[in-house]
Amino acid sequence: MPPRRFALGRAEDAVRADAIRAALSEFVATAIFVFAAEGSVLALEKLYRDTSTAGGLAVVAIAHALALFVAVAVAINISGGHVNPAVTFGALVGGRISLLDALLYWAAQLLGAVVASLLLRITTGGMRPLGFSVASGVGEWHAVLLEVVMTFGLVYTVYATAIDPKRGHIATVAPLAIGFMVGANILAGGPFDGAAMNLARAFGPALVGWRWWHHWIYWVGPFVGAALAGLVYEFLVILAADTAPSQLTRQPLSPEDY
């Protein structure tokens, strides 16, 4: 099978009913995720005035995992359940979505994150969303590399469980696998840079809370990691599997081969 081709999309496609439904689904799902995820951070801040403890990190990781599991599950049959501009970018690089659809998804995801952050600020009596920041002693480029690695793992998981045409029954656990991947990465990278892996998740709280310190890291790192994952899975995993000889056509091993 030849590699998938990059598609720009047509202007009239933006007003298709299914395109509008998909964008709306991404907006709602991203708002659900960001509200619960950032809300867990604000709740810890209100209760203990400290979100840097081991217990706090575990709670935040679990909250993110569960919230993303639900957000992906409610959107996966309509939009594919990206809930993350980086995931959309990985799919775009792999030729699984057109540029026009990707732009619609990005707009919906960023807007959903902003609305969720605004709702949090209103419902918490004016608490500023904390968003993400690089820990003391961690270099900017170290944080970028960390975001690249974590987002690569996330988008690779999305490809394997939700995008791969041969995913089979594993697709039923895609939302859970994706949520678990994010939760695990937060446990690994949270103490260093917060472990965003999601441009919308970083942008909404940054805009509403007006906290822009090192914000560029949470755009560059996830985009690079997502692009690498999309290229690796699409052209080295899917394409290689499609061009490999069928297991059924191979000669059986003789006793001397063992």
TrEMBL record:
Primary localization class, coarse: membrane
Keywords (A to Z) from UniProt: Membrane, Repeat, Transmembrane, Transmembrane helix, Transport, Vacuole
MF terms (GO), sorted A to Z: water channel activity
Annotated TM spans: 20-44, 56-83, 103-122, 143-162, 168-188, 219-241
Alphabetical list of InterPro entries matching this protein: Aquaporin-like (IPR023271), Aquaporin_transptr (IPR034294), MIP (IPR000425), MIP_CS (IPR022357)
Membrane topology term: Multi-pass membrane protein
Any one Gene Ontology cellular component term annotated for this protein: vacuolar membrane
Compartments where located: Vacuole membrane
Signal peptide: none
Superkingdom of origin: Eukaryota
NCBIfam families reported in the protein's UniProt record: MIP
Protein family according to the UniProt entry: Belongs to the MIP/aquaporin (TC 1.A.8) family. TIP (TC 1.A.8.10) subfamily.
Protein name according to UniProt: Probable aquaporin TIP3-1
Species annotation: Ananas comosus (Pineapple)
Source species taxonomy: Eukaryota, Viridiplantae, Streptophyta, Embryophyta, Tracheophyta
